[in-house]
Structures are given as structure tokens and as C-alpha cells.
Amino acid sequence: MELGGSTWPAVGEPIVVVPLGSCEQHGPHLPLDTDTRIAVALAQALAVRRSDCVVAPPVAITASGEHQGFPGTLSVGTEVMAAVVIELARSADWAAGVVFVNGHGGNHTALQRAAEVFEIERRRALIWSPRIPDGDPHAGRTETSLLLHLAPERVDLDAAVAGPIPSLPELVQHGVRALSDSGVLGDPAGASADEGRALFHSLADQLSVAVDEWTRS
Q1: How far, in Å, CA of 180 to CA of 197, rounded?
Q2: What span, in angstroms and rounded, lies between the C-alpha atoms of 123 and 108?
Q3: Which residues, in sequence order, are CB contacts of 13 under 8 Å at separation 6+?
Q4: What is the 3-state secondary structure (H, E, C) of 114-150?
């Protein structure tokens, strides 16, 4: 199930599942690797359901420029991130295909650019991001609940505070630091492990269905 722990003769021709996370602030109560933890857990859940999938090491530093100014945040930018995804897919020509499980909204533009290249090159690659219609933007109830389910020891609810929910144009123009002193966009109040468990299983179902449809196409 884990590509990094395999030897090359044992790998075969599986679907390679690549978790895409981030190293960026998630308010005063969640760890910097929140997005990576979520992406890895979803990739692993997919591999449990599908014996033809193997989980690659995560890409843990991605495009997080909107969080510039907060200590701990690291970013490679959109251009580099797009190139990384493209080259990873190209390098996996030995595989049956590549599924990118994206846990960070800031990667959206980079992944769009990569998808355009994959279409031109007719590359067997799927880019998947969670869809949470009522989710708050960043480090609010949604991500806090998910982390309370996946890694409760990393959540400091006593430090959790609410933040604004800006429009996407405001966020793109100003960045998070100018809009929220805490880095939170949303409200962690009411987050729970039970809610996180239900949400996680819903996302795992979404991912599984998407991959099933992709493999049949």
C-alpha cells in the first residue's frame, strides 16, 4: 500500500496515489501539516478500498503564498507546483495511472494548469479535490473536526478562535495575514471528532467514486 516502503520489483503497475498537502499556518490551534495529514489519510483510505492502488510519499510543501507572513509557512509557488505535478505524472509512465489527492485549496490554479497539460499529452492522470459545500475556508470547523478525528493529539481547542470569511477576490488580493490576525477563516466552534469522522468517510466515498468512474472511462 505504501510506495516508499516497496522494492522496485514488487511495485508492478498499480495506480499511484499522490497526496498533495501543504506546510502552512492553520490558526493557533491546528498543526502546519493539517492539509497533508488529511490528504494522506484519504489516499490511504482509497488504497484500503482498492487493491490496485499504492500510496506515494506526500508532496508536503506546495503553493501557499496566500499565507505569507505567518511563521512556519513554506511555499514553492504556483508555477513550481504545477511543474512538480506534471513531472511526477510523467515520471510514473510505468504505472497504470496517477491519482493526485489534493488537500490544499491554494493548489487549485497549479492543478488546473497541470490538468491542461495532461489533457494535451493524453496522460492517464486524475486530479481530485474535496468538495464540502458548507465548509468554512481555512482552519474553521471543517478542518478542526477532521483533525479531531484523524489526529486529536495535535488539536489545541483552548487556543481556537473565530476569524472572518472573506470573498475569494479579497483573499487573492490581500492574502490571509491582512484579513485575519489569527490566520483562521471561519469558526472552529462546535467542531467534534464525530463530525470529523462522518465528514472524512463522506470524502473517502467521494474519492472512491471518482476513481471508480475514472478507471472505467
Answers
A1: 28
A2: 19
A3: 94, 95, 96
A4: HHHHHHHHCCCEEEECCCCCCCCCECCHHHHHHHHHH
Cα separation of 163 and 140, whole Å?
8
- Of the candidates 112, 93, 99, the one whose C-alpha atom is nearest the C-alpha of residue 42 is 99
Burial of 132 (0-12, 13-18, 19+ CB in 10 A): middle
Q: Which of 138, 22, 136, 23 shows the shortest CA–CA distance to 71?
A: 23
Greater model confidence, 1 or 79 = 79
**Nearest of 25, 27, 46 to residue 182 by alpha carbon:** 27
**Residue 170, all three cell numbers:** 479579497
| CB proximity list for 133: less than 8 A, separation 6 or greater | none
Q: How far is CA 135 from CA 51, 115, 196, in A?
A: 31, 25, 12
Chain segment 88-99, per-residue pLDDT in tens:
999 999 999 999
What integer is the mean pLDDT of 109-116? 98
Confidence at residue 120, expressed as pLDDT on a 0 to 100 scale? 98
Task: Look at residues 150, 160, 153, 144 and name the one whose alpha carbon lies nearest to residue 197.
Answer: 150
Task: Look at residues 56, 141, 132, 134 and name the one whose alpha carbon lies nearest to residue 101.
Answer: 56
**Where would I find the H helices in the chain?**
8-11, 34-49, 77-91, 108-121, 141-150, 168-174, 176-179, 193-216
